[in-house]
Amino acid sequence: MVRSSTSTFQSMEELHDEIKLKLGSKTLEPFGHGGGGCISSGQGYTTDHGKVYLKVNSKAKARRMFDGEYASLKAIAETHTVKTPTPMLVLDNPSGGALLVMEHLDMTGLSKHDAELGRQLARMHLHNESVGKQTKKAEASVHKDEDAVEYVSKYGFDTTTCCGFLPQDNTWCDDWPTFMARKLSTQITRLQEEKNEKEAPELWSKLQLKFPSFFENVDIKPALLHGDLWGGNVAEYADGPVIFDPSSFYGHAEYDHGIATMFGGFSHSFFKSYHELIPKCEGYATRQKIYQLFNYLNHWNHFGGGYRGSSVSIMRELVAS
Ligand SMILES: Nc1ncnc2c1ncn2[C@@H]1O[C@H](COP(=O)(O)OP(=O)(O)OP(=O)(O)O)[C@@H](O)[C@H]1O
């Protein structure tokens, strides 16, 4: 992986020359149709070392978004549990915004590898815990491994990551309910300030009081999360399942199921194989509402009032529970 500086370029040609230099490739030729998702556009290119995918966004804060995606892809890849495109470069774009260069994968919709993705996601969620167990064993041993991966004992991430294009406050926190309440609070404050919303803040002030009760009797260990695991961010390629476009942080493993169950795309086999490795804990269904609430609020902040009804009704339900 090659990380860039924050230099800017005079033209697209210069930008392409910079990418070629950083990738050590003489060629950089577009292929196929350009594409992209709701937030950014993208294009595949051939290089001397294989195919790469350039994800481009012209927003002023695109650099922060792509730095977060780069760090997330890297963290997931380092668990060796589930395939993600290898991130290569983040560069400022001369015409505004930024771009992310990553490995190109020929992806198709998730179908025959759905159960395998369930297993692999569970292994990714368990990875930090297993690092913790190995660390304890190593502490008791006389042979020290200087290169051993370190256990993460808090909730958060070293880099700001964006769910959509809005930044998530990943400042490290010792306690999951506090971290999760802060995530919700940030969304509510934005609605209050930017959309003059009144009812959601009132409901949140009531919900906050009972918030810790939703997490009683659950042993929550920090797990590396994808952070935006909707059906549009999972796929399969020739060798198995793929997850992409993450906005990672260390949090409660159940969090990744929140958005996964909002828009479909995940089968019974996916959840069955996941729960064979991480069984459901008491209170799972209620906590799913909390994790979905974050995503409804985040969609409301991104895309407008179409998500207001779902957000407010979940809050009312949780307040009354
Ligand atoms: N590494 C890659 N290789 C090949 N195609 C890719 C790659 N990354 C993304 N794509 C294609 O681009 C599409 C959109 O990608 P992505 O989800 O990263 O965009 P986005 O605008 O950030 O997302 P979203 O729609 O989730 O908000 C994917 O569905 C896929 O078809």
TrEMBL record:
<protein>
    <recommendedName>
        <fullName>protein-ribulosamine 3-kinase</fullName>
        <ecNumber>2.7.1.172</ecNumber>
    </recommendedName>
</protein>
<keyword id="KW-0418">Kinase</keyword>
<comment type="similarity">
    <text>Belongs to the fructosamine kinase family.</text>
</comment>
<keyword id="KW-0808">Transferase</keyword>
<dbReference type="InterPro" id="IPR011009">
    <property type="entry name" value="Kinase-like_dom_sf"/>
</dbReference>
<dbReference type="Pfam" id="PF03881">
    <property type="entry name" value="Fructosamin_kin"/>
</dbReference>
<dbReference type="InterPro" id="IPR016477">
    <property type="entry name" value="Fructo-/Ketosamine-3-kinase"/>
</dbReference>
